[in-house]
Design brief:
One of its GO terms (molecular function) is carbohydrate derivative binding. The protein is of the alpha/beta class. It is built from 19 helices and 27 strands.
Length: 611
């Protein structure tokens, strides 16, 4: 949620195009307004507008010469989307300007106190409070740096701040607490951003700020300290992916590009991690805790959104092949439960960004209780990656589309590896281990065959895109896939869609079935095929339309379902990585046919960094 970008430069440049470009690269995170501020010879220039960045461009001067500038895409939390509530916010004397991602929990108390002391507020946001708070400390004699530090010590909440000052034109101060922020370094500039995609066009050399730290950036200096003034020394890291990976290339949308990258995402997730002849999964990130994993008798998977659905699939995989009980919890609910942990329990936090606020909150609570903390994230150096005891990256590469596609299948691939890893530690036979490893290795090729069905799926989308309700059904491994398909259709096309376990259809959803309520049914040739077939017959008996996702060479299904999309045969535990691909394509095509921006669906954010 939200996106911060800024720079400090050795030379004065036209700041507007640099900031605007950075903000555009952060659009996928979600926003409802945008703004920028730059230190100039005549004070601080600021413009901000509700709506898209294009609205900001209309009111921003072409030439704003500066060597220190900041910008932000805002996602409203306090105060509705409007020009006045857009960032940056400023102090009474209009010398201190800042942008902020996060939530200040004690802003009301601070704001009331500042108003009593004579401060005038111009917005409805929590963020503006901090600009006045810094000014208040300066009025008492504190330097810019010390005033910021004292303000940070006074506030409670989650935040990433970028702050500039008219009287300190070469200085930017940034701070972080539970909201991502990194600094990039080129020969002439220092850049600050919420994530690497905005910095990558300028440099691959970065430093990630940790919670409870602030940094001072000038053209010639960079210092990090804790809020208690302790100096921090941290070396540079290199961003692993390239600028080309965050371009659409030949595709009209990032979402379609990323669906077509799903086979490659699985290849990257399993590369170097399979020893087929020994039937083993080699997960280097877990080597340091391998003996503790071997002793586990309980695994809790904590996640939100699509990652939660990946976790549900992982539950089936790990319980069946790893032989240990697995619980999957919405992080947003689990963190408020009175849960009990013991020495043989592990928590697995699953998050594409590695910054999901609720998932991170559960992790920190479990860490305080001494639980083994494992992570499955896509973004290297993210908060979850740093906080866990051990973990595995899914290596899906940058995912720009708000609706997760390739990250989802790569999470499934890693969870399959984890099931194999734990299973071979325990009772899984060499024969079964080899079979799983072989089928996993063959999966990317089979996924590419599914992509060849895209023209057929597009035709089906054309046929069904005017329907306003859909039911998605699946059983066992494909129950979470049904949930994922329904979620994607809701996210991308704003169509009402329900996902259910097929066995639950008779317990309510069947009441909705008629000719105007199509059903998408996962019916691969697996251990519960006959039961799902019976569910389809029940739908057809009530004049319902059925689109079936079925295994190649199934001649029976075409005689029953209205339409069929075929997928290759694989192990039952691996079918979700094949059966979900048509659902992603179907949602994409319907969203496009309905005229929506599928890369930036309304009201959604790529990285949910507030609770």
């Amino acid at each position: 949620m939200c996106g911060i970008f800024g720079f400090v430069s050795k030379e004065k440049i036209n700041a507007t195009p640099v900031i605007i470009d950075g903000l555009k690269r952060l659009e996928y995170r979600g926003y409802d307004s945008a703004g920028l501020a730059a230190v100039t010879s005549r004070g601080i220039f600021m413009r901000k507008k509700a709506g898209r960045i294009s609205e900001l461009e209309k009111v921003t001067n072409a030439d704003v010469v500066s060597n220190t500038a900041i910008g932000q895409n805002r996602w409203a939390t306090h105060g509705k989307p409007s020009d006045k509530n857009a960032h940056p916010h400023f102090s009474c004397n209009k010398k201190i300007f800042l942008v902020h991602n996060g939530i200040i929990e004690n802003f009301k108390e601070l704001k009331d106190k500042l108003i009593r002391q004579g401060h005038k507020f111009t917005s409805d946001t929590d963020t503006e409070t901090v600009a006045h708070l810094i000014e208040n400390f300066e009025n008492k004699g504190a330097s810019f740096e010390e005033a910021v530090r004292l303000a940070l010590k006074s506030i409670i909440g989650t935040y990433a701040f970028t702050i500039i000052h008219a009287d300190n034109p070469d200085t930017m101060i940034v701070a972080r607490n539970s909201s991502p922020l990194l600094v990039g370094f080129s020969d002439t500039h220092k850049f600050v951003a919420s994530d690497a995609s905005a910095i990558l066009p300028h440099t691959r050399k970065v430093v990630y700020l940790h919670d409870g730290e602030f940094a001072i950036l000038t053209p010639s200096d960079f210092r990090i300290a804790t809020f208690d003034r302790k100096a921090v020394s941290r070396g540079h890291e290199l961003i692993e992916w390239s600028q080309d990976e965050v371009k659409k290339n030949k595709f009209p949308h990032f979402m379609l590009k990323e669906i077509y990258e799903e086979p490659e995402a699985v290849e990257n997730a399993i590369r170097g991690r399979l020893i087929i002849k020994d039937g083993l999964a080699k997960l280097g990130g877990l080597e340091s805790v391998e003996n503790r994993v071997k002793r586990l008798n309980r695994l809790i998977i904590s996640a939100c959104g699509t990652a939660y659905l990946a976790g549900l699939t992982g539950e089936y995989m790990i319980e069946e092949y790893g032989g240990i009980p697995v619980e999957v919890e919405y992080a947003s609910e689990f963190r408020y439960k009175k849960h009990k942990f013991d020495a043989k329990t592990a928590l697995l936090s699953v998050s594409q960004s590695g910054e999901t606020a609720d998932t991170l909150g559960v992790l920190k609570e479990a860490k305080r209780k001494g639980v083994l903390n494992l992570g499955l994230v896509n973004v290297v150096g993210s908060s979850i990656a740093r906080e866990t005891d051990a973990g595995v990256y899914n290596h899906a590469g940058p995912e720009i589309g708000v609706a997760s596609t390739k990250a989802f299948v790569s999470q499934l691939a890693v969870l399959s590896l984890l099931g194999l890893f734990i299973g071979r530690q325990r009772d899984m036979s060499l024969v079964m281990g080899r079979r799983i490893a072989s089928e996993l290795a063959a999966l990317p090729g089979k996924m590419r065959r599914v992509l060849k069905e895209a023209p057929n799926i597009k035709k089906l989308a054309r046929k069904y895109h005017k329907y306003d309700h859909f039911l998605y059904l699946g059983r066992k491994y494909n129950y979470p896939v049904a949930l994922e398909g329904a979620l994607k259709l809701k996210e991308i096309s704003y169509i009402h869609a329900e996902g259910y376990g097929a066995g639950e259809m008779k317990h309510g959803p069947i009441a909705m079935i008629d000719k105007n309520f199509p059903s998408m049914v996962m019916v691969p040739s697996d251990s519960i095929y006959e039961k799902v077939l019976s569910n389809i017959q029940e739908i057809k008996a009530r004049s319902g339309k059925v689109i079936a996702i079925a295994t190649e060479d199934n001649k029976e299904i075409s005689k029953i379902a209205d339409d069929v999309i075929y997928i290759p045969k694989t192990l039952e535990m691996l079918t979700p990585m094949l059966s979900v691909m048509p659902l992603h394509l179907f949602a994409y095509y319907i969203g496009v046919m309905r005229g929506y921006d599928v890369d930036k669906p309304r009201n959604l954010a790529k990285s949910v960094t507030v609770e």
